[in-house]
UniProtKB/TrEMBL annotation:
InterPro entries: Gfo-Idh-MocA_inositol_DH (IPR050424), Gfo/Idh/MocA-like_OxRdtase_N (IPR000683), GFO_IDH_MocA-like_dom (IPR055170), NAD(P)-bd_dom_sf (IPR036291). This is Gfo/Idh/MocA family oxidoreductase. It comes from Mesorhizobium opportunistum. Gene3D superfamilies: Dihydrodipicolinate Reductase, domain 2, NAD(P)-binding Rossmann-like Domain. It holds the Pfam family GFO_IDH_MocA. Residues 4-124 form the Gfo/Idh/MocA-like oxidoreductase N-terminal domain. The lineage of its organism: Bacteria, Pseudomonadati, Pseudomonadota, Alphaproteobacteria, Hyphomicrobiales. It comes from the Bacteria. Residues 132-246 form the GFO/IDH/MocA-like oxidoreductase domain.
Amino acid sequence: MSLGIGITGAGVMGADHARTLATQVGGAKLVAVSDPDEARACEVARANEARRHHTDGFALIEDPAVEAVIVASPDHTHAAMVLACLRAGKPVLCEKPLAPTVAECRDLIEAEQRTGRRMIQVGFMRRFDPAYAAMHATLSSGRLGRPLLMHCAHRNAAAPGFFTPEMSIANAAVHEFDVVRWLLGLEAVAVTALRSASKANGTLRDPILLVLEMQNGVPVDIEIFMNAAYGYDIRAELVCENGTVELGRPAPNLVRNEGEEARTFPGDWRGRFSDAYRLQLQAWIGGLGGKTQSGAGALDGYVATLIAQAALRSLASGAREEIAPAGSLTR
Ligand code: ISE
């Protein structure tokens, strides 16, 4: 039987999820799309054979044809949309961040707990990326020994026009916060953020260097560069007692031409992480209806936002900021 899925937000990610759902994922069907821009909602719905569209995300959530929801509307709408899904009893896959503030994330965890079941998955799709999964498997095999430290870089060719300085951390670096916790199985205890002398690129003033201190004394450095100009480039190398494991490069082919050899970088994350998005959606749909659900949950969304808030404080203060333990909140 095919589950009816609704998507709130018909922007870059909403349209991408709609296409992946319509063409590459089994067991579910896109039935409705919402966007305040009606023409856009209608276009994404029609292109992916969904019969219904709405200009209001809450109307989509209430739509009886919608049995589960993907929230891909702007970050500041996430908390209200997810809460509406919980009230309507509809499972939700929410794009990251779960919500921009720790208080909103905490409210969502509590609201989910009141339903008595796991209803929220957060779109930290890197957990499903084959290269990150292979890195996880290598570390888990134990052959490299214990992890000692980790290097990460997160480079975009150019930040979208709507990007604010806070979003470099609250929207982009949250991917690293989540995947590092997931890979190492350790929590972050402190963060220090350093801004570079800065490339002349307006208000973002990037790149930013973050140093996360994880439990067990494992440091992780993360470069966030939203205007790296040359392409989308995600790097990670885990340094362990007996060796290292580094994330493979996404472009498999080497092109030789006019005295040079080159690999091509994807323009943005949709190309680099297309497998991850597909596998994430398939796993989410497969896990609905009471079966075991994989992927990041509400608590993971909360922790990522908790680290992001501490990193933003560090950026403002120039000081090392401690990260409060997730405390009594339970998975
Ligand atoms: C974007 O929102 C994403 O989710 C991408 O995965 C990330 O790499 C990019 O920096 C974000 O802006």
